[in-house]
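Predict fold of LppI; 232 aa.
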Amino acid sequence: MRLPVALAACALVAGCAANSDQHGQPGVAISEPSLSATAPASRPPAPAPKAAPTTPPPAGAPVADVIAWVEAGTPADPAGFHTATRDGTPTDLGTDIAFTTASGANCITDKSFNGALACLMHLTSPPPQPADTYGHWVGGWVDFEGPTAEVGSVHGDPGRFNAGTGPKLKDGQSLRFGDYQCRADATGPVCVNYARRTAVRFSNAGIQTFGCLTPVLPAPEGVGLKFACTTA
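Predicted 3D structure, encoded as tokens:
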């Protein structure tokens, strides 16, 4: 019985020795499992959101900047601007919109003209009545249809303004209606027409246009100043 036990012991010792020799031999590479984890790829920081513009766009500003400034205003509920008041009597305008501003602008749309916007202004230098134009000249009547803007025209009656004036759009408020959005400002409202990506600043100091609106020279008969988009 001692012989098998002795042989087993010798085999165990020999195996241990061989294993020990293998680790001790020079030039024998022993691969070890790596414990280091691959670091995740770093991502660039997300760009900071563009701050909303706080000052009105200057003359000649890109129309995209004008739109951004108008849209940064405090939204006003259009439901409160569907009436106009004359001598204390309100008139329901239906789908039309009317508003006034602290600068003195009186603006109203007219569904009879595809909802186009017009404003009566107290221009410091309104265009004079053309020599070949007859009738009641209103130099501060500004029509803004989108592809065109006209300043000064003949009107035999108040037209759409016969209903009176709309509620006040406070400075800093923005009103969205139809193809338009207007923001009131101390210098006058700025209105955008989304269908044509054009804009007009209705200032008593002068009418400014943005986008593709450029002066038409000479102005057509019966109009003081005209701006139009010459491209489709």
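Residues 56 and 69 are 7 Å apart (CA to CA).
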